[in-house]
Amino acid sequence: MDFLLLLAALVGHTALWAALINRVHSSSFSYYVGKRLAQVGLVMLGSIPVVFGLWFVAADLAILGGSGGRPIPWPGRTYLVVCWVLAAMTLVWWLCRPLVHRDPKVVRSHRSERVGPLGLPASSPWERNGHHLLLRVPGNEVLHLDLSHRVLEVARLPAALDGLTIAHLSDFHFARHTRKAYFEEVVRLGNRFEADLVAVTGDVLEHSDFIEWSPDTLGKLEGRYGVYFVLGNHDTKADVPRLRRSLTELGLVDLGGRWVEIRIAGEPILLAGNELPWLKPAADLSDAPAGAAHGGPPRIALSHSPDQFGWARKNDFDLLLAGHTHGGQVRLPWIGPILTPSRTGVRYASGVFYTPPTVMHVTRGISGEHPIRLNCPPEITRLVLKKPEGRD
Prior knowledge:
Blueprint (H helix, E strand, L loop, with lengths): L1 H24 L5 H28 L2 E2 L7 E2 L2 H27 L6 E9 L29 E9 L10 E6 L10 H12 L5 E5 L25 E4 L9 H10 L3 E2 L4 E6 L2 E8 L24 E5 L5 H6 L4 E4 L8 E2 L3 E2 L13 E5 L2 E5 L16 E8 L6
Parallel strand pairs: 1-2, 4-17, 5-6, 6-7, 7-8, 10-11, 11-12, 12-16
Antiparallel strand pairs: 3-4, 5-17, 9-10, 13-14, 15-16
């Protein structure tokens, strides 16, 4: 019985420290401070069970009375109780999540096509020069890519904009562990969507040195009515003004902390950016045209983090596009992701979410700081916006 109770405590312990690590990654700490705090969390996640287990055996402790061992001192008992409560909550979540986490009714259809591996050298598929050794891990899907196609109903979409298409790309994370050829292939495939708008929702690179990759990658993106971007927390590791300047010189439109109004098919659309909590401020809409609820144009927001869902709803956005989470990068069968950089944990790891008036699409992104993905391939998405069926 003690073994089962300790196993349950281990589940709760993992849930506790995973939640803390997720919270750190969603906070406004600088990248380097956040990374150090997350590393401390990972050490605690791994070391506490080892230390507790050794203590339990060496001191001949027992959880239940009458099992022959000494009772656990109160600090240990308190921590065990906390872990058991969290284990029970986690078990309920694991059992219910596959049943309740389904696409909302605003998703009219969803299909995807898997391609890859992409960007491999012709001579040697896993040569060390240009690709990280983690890519050799069996089942690693880092260089594979899902081409997703989703049709979304947007309640207040004008009839003239019915069928508007958006290519959503996020989290390129340009770095040495992945060849530039991979990202060039991603852009080529994204251009096959022939989208009206292209949205890039942050984490372009890991270091200023990789700004030079932009002309052959992001600079090649094509949208009939423009390519728009916001930056993310990893971009703060680079020279942010230089990165913004480079991308705008390539023809991309910077939405960081601002809004613009464009016209498509004669209809106005308001596009805005939110890079919180890392880059302030979010777009100030105090002098913007009224939202669709008051007869104004539909509003579309780009945010790096899905934690800005509340901000989007408060500001009457019809659609929010976000990244940052990478879908968790590692998804366990049935259970799903464990570590997701959001203050809501894995709730918004990826997919479509709807709380009126806002539809939110969270992409799994294209790459990451750590080149490991299991049961969670990268993706780029073509979104087709439709007015609700039966609406005139």
